[in-house]
Write a structure and sequence with these properties.
six-stranded mixed sheet, alpha/beta, 2 domains, about 260 residues
């Protein structure tokens, strides 16, 4: 059994019992729907729905992981927000650079309309985990976050050797970020992490849904060819503002296809 510690927020997520094979996803396009995503529908269940966010590779998140979640009873919208290294996605920017946070309000609104009264969980890996936390700090109706290798800071654009381009922007302009150095590995982040001014400027705030926080666990079990997810959130969160301090965890992800 693989268990990953995840960061999640208030509101009880009912466990879903269905474990059937997911059908082909429903394709959403920027031209027709103003978002680029693939909806993997669950055969049954009344629990959470998942908005899945990929990392710095770009394109659509893992098909296999989205299928597994849907087969376990969690309808999953695998969202693309830039093309990256995975091939061109029509209507999206090529790089993770100054991505408008307003774009993510559209899939959230779409999911609320399609799945009324069901809690929405954000799931992200690496830069997608950073994005999930950032979005939760700006939205009050996110039920939980599954964050693989997240960061407590906002970082700059991917592939920007100058260190002067933001990854995200909002109505006020570029979202403040910590600048990484143009070198491979963890040393690229060392200077910013050692700089109190950068850490204060780039910290993801404990606001929005992040003001109501608790720890919980997600489990993914594998038995032969059967894979099942269970996302559990304790009911004892209490919904109290806690001034949460986000922490970073390095987590090993399963092989995906």
């Amino acid at each position: 059994m693989l268990r990953w510690l995840l960061l999640a927020l208030s509101m009880l997520l009912p466990a879903a019992a269905a474990h059937a094979q997911s059908a082909e996803p429903i394709e959403l396009t920027v031209a027709a729907d103003m978002i680029a995503g693939r909806l993997y529908e669950a055969p049954d269940g009344s629990g959470a729905v998942v908005l899945m966010l990929g990392g710095s590779d770009g394109g659509y998140p893992s098909r296999r992981a989205a299928q597994d979640l849907a087969a376990s009873g969690y309808p999953t919208l695998a969202l693309a927000y830039f093309s990256g290294f995975s091939g061109r996605v029509a209507g999206l920017p090529d790089r993770l650079e100054e991505i408008p946070l307003a774009y993510f309000g559209r899939p959230l609104a779409w999911m609320r309309a399609r799945f009324p009264r069901r809690p929405i969980v954000l799931m992200g890996e690496s830069r997608g985990a950073e994005l999930a936390l950032l979005l939760a700090s700006r939205h009050r109706d996110i039920a939980g976050i599954v964050a693989f290798s997240p960061s407590s800071l906002v970082w700059g654009a991917v592939g920007d050797a100058s260190g002067r381009r933001a990854a995200w922007q909002d109505a006020r302009g570029p979202v403040p970020y910590a600048a990484s150095e143009p070198q491979p590995g963890p040393s690229a982040f060392a200077a910013a992490l050692a700089d109190p001014a950068q850490r204060r400027r780039a910290a993801i705030p404990s606001s929005g849904s992040l003001a109501r926080s608790c720890w919980c666990r997600a489990a993914r079990t594998t038995s032969g060819r059967q894979r099942a997810w269970r996302i559990r959130l304790p009911s004892a969160c209490g919904g109290r503002a806690s001034g949460m301090r986000l922490q970073t965890f390095n987590m090993r992800m399963p092989a995906t296809s």
